[in-house]
Amino acid sequence: MADSGGRTIVRRPRGPGSPRRSFRPRALGAGVVGLALASTALAACGSSGAGTGPVTINYYVFDDVSGSFATAVNNCSKQSNGKYTITYNKLPKSADDQRLQLARRLAAADSSMDILGLDVTWEAEFAEAGWILPWTGNFKQQAEAGTLKVPLQTATWKGKLYAVPANTNTQLLWYRSDLVPTPPTTWAEMIKDAEQLAKEGKPHYIEIQGAQYEGATVWFNTMVSSAGGTVLNPDATKITLDARAVKALTIMKQLADSTAADPSMSVQKENENRLQMEAGNAAFMLNYPFVYPGMKADNPKLFKVFKWALYPSVTAGVPAKVTIGGIDLAVSAYSQHKDLAFQAALCLRNRENQLIGANVGGVPPTIASLYNDPKLFANYPFHADILKALQNASVRPKTPVYQVVSIDISHQISPASSINPTSTLQGMKGSLSNALQSKGLVP
User: Closest Cα to residue 224, out of 207, 196, 260, 248?
Assistant: First the structure.
């Protein structure tokens, strides 16, 4: 499945996405550091490289049940010609626990950590803490060569590249062509079409991630970006929400109050959206590509009329700027094998392994030329629209306190039926101002 962070793994066991965030950064106290030091000692005892064999490069990333990560690890270990062997250390299932485990060990300067698989919202925090190294020189050139521009933005903080994008993700509009022969191009058209279907007694819901979690924040950020606005300025020192955010909130409220809204929208996440579509209750869905193989396997009859299009625009004639997800690979500042870690990270996200990640793991590549590779086409018949979406995409607000920012936003806009565009915006500005100043409590 896919989560709001855009991780698409395989549908059933995990779920990018599993539901994502509802947490805030906490100070790392002595108890936490003590635990991390203990784990460091254990890890150090098991690391190799002191003898004559290949150096062990420890790779920490979430547990990819599709097997594509494990394949990449094996490929790169073999292709290193004896320089290193990569050990795949699987982090917990939830993004919250993944980040916490990494933070604990990095706060303790754990020298057994080499490559870190980061969610696209962690770079600023980890870079600001001094836990990850900037990419420079030849490594930086290789990381940037041929890589899509917007995914690179997720790996950048204050003008420095701190990671290499390993994969990405974006949403499309999925619809039933038996109900809507021509897909809508704007939110206004989509809501109008859905309301007309409702009048005719036909399936008509618009499925969207409306629960109070990261998915709602992604929806809001996409709407604001598509309206031409932003949440924060580039260095995260100022809130930039304005009339364009009011426009975004107005559309979100309009959907929630219309017959197009799924009655359970306020508790729905990516997988619930998929299930409603597969059950034949919806006409439209905004979601990640994992829904395509899901429909194919679970409802072959509906699959025949299950089509896709670009995400609808907020303003007619202006393409939507969909908020992307994905995983970026960073090198720990405490690694004892930094050069080899950079080399291994580049291998893990090379053309061969990104193609495997797409075809087996279901995650879109970050190397632009792969979208012209016929090897991608069979499992990604929507590859051209994915590329268009990625080329015009947006990223989430970049800030070391992103977790708090995300929680504050999701609590302001969920349920969407409670939105009052003007007052909701003012409340959001207040809570985000406190977040940037490390004041106040997270809801």
Answer: 248
